[in-house]
């Protein structure tokens, strides 16, 4: 059941850790296929995780495949999928610079064009306990673009597929680090709404087999 999606979750969980987007068993990843969701299991080391360890749940949160408990943030994933039928994958990280802004309850402004993977900016919601229904509801309400900072917690990123969701998580962390460095030097100017609209159009045409710029 959702064999390919479970394999992808193992791959991207290990990638998330190897690229410094989380530590230990922190963070989680899910992929939705119709009304079914494959999601990383709770508290399982990424190095030893196998596709058989990845549970599959329905949109009510009931486990229909697997013997391990799903991530403690299952309710947040489900709430966002219900609110955003256009997304099919979510990546939740504890990456250092995104989490730094989250601890300060500061949104991430558009200081670099790669924030376009997430949207015009990355908002930040207040703190809610991890795994709580309050966090799930607040995240779903605020997830109007493809990334969101969770106050005193971390980042969630989303996309129409796991590749796009993971790219959004990586690029937000990159821009968050740039923002932190710029603040230490007096601050940075933000791109204008017109510039961001142009960036989104360019991203729509970016990739192999499309008429696009050679440089990302």
> What amount of the residues lies in strands?
15-25%
- Shape descriptor reads globular
Q: Give the proportion of residues in helices.
A: 25-40%
For the report, how would you describe the main beta sheet?
A: 8 strands, mixed
Strand order of the largest sheet: 4-3-2-1-5-8-7-6
Oligomeric description of these chains: single chain
Alpha-carbon distance between the two ends = 36 Å
Mean pLDDT: 94
Keywords:
alpha+beta; 37% helix; disordered C terminus; single chain; eight-stranded mixed beta sheet; 216 residues; 6 helices
Characterize the structure shown.
This protein is α+β, with helices and mostly antiparallel strands and 216 residues long. It is built from six helices and eight strands, in the order H-E-E-E-E-H-E-H-E-H-E-E-H-H. The protein is globular, with a radius of gyration of 17 Å. A hairpin with a 2-residue loop joins strand 1 and strand 2. The model is unreliable at 209-216 (pLDDT under 50). The longest helix is centred in the last third of the chain and has 23 residues, at 162-184. Helix content is 37%, strand content 15%. The protein has helices spanning 3-18, 74-83, 96-103, 133-142, 162-184, 193-204; strands at residues 28-33, 36-39, 56-58, 63-65, 89-93, 124-125, 147-150, 154-159. Helix 2 packs parallel to helix 4 (133-142). The protein has an eight-stranded mixed beta sheet with strand order 4-3-2-1-5-8-7-6, with helices on both faces.
């Amino acid at each position: 059941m959702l064999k390919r999606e479970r394999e992808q979750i193992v791959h991207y969980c290990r990638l998330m850790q190897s690229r410094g987007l989380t530590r230990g068993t922190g963070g989680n990843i899910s992929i939705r296929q119709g009304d079914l969701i494959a999601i990383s299991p709770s508290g399982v080391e990424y190095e030893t995780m196998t596709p058989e360890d990845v549970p599959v749940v329905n949109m009510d949160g009931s486990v229909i495949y697997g013997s391990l408990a799903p991530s403690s943030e299952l309710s947040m994933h489900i709430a966002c999928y219900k609110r955003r039928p256009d997304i099919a994958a979510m990546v939740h990280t504890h990456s250092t610079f995104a989490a730094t802004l989250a601890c300060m309850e500061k949104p991430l402004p558009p200081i670099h064009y790669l924030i376009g993977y997430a949207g015009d900016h990355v908002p930040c919601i207040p703190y809610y306990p991890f795994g709580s229904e309050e966090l799930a509801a607040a995240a779903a309400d605020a997830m109007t673009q493809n990334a969101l900072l969770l106050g005193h917690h971390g980042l969630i990123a989303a996309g129409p597929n796991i590749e796009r969701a993971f790219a959004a998580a990586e690029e937000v962390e990159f821009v968050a680090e740039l923002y932190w460095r710029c603040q230490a030097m007096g601050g940075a100017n933000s791109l204008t709404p017109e510039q961001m609209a142009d960036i989104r159009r360019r991203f729509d045409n970016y990739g192999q087999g499309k008429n696009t710029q050679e440089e990302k």
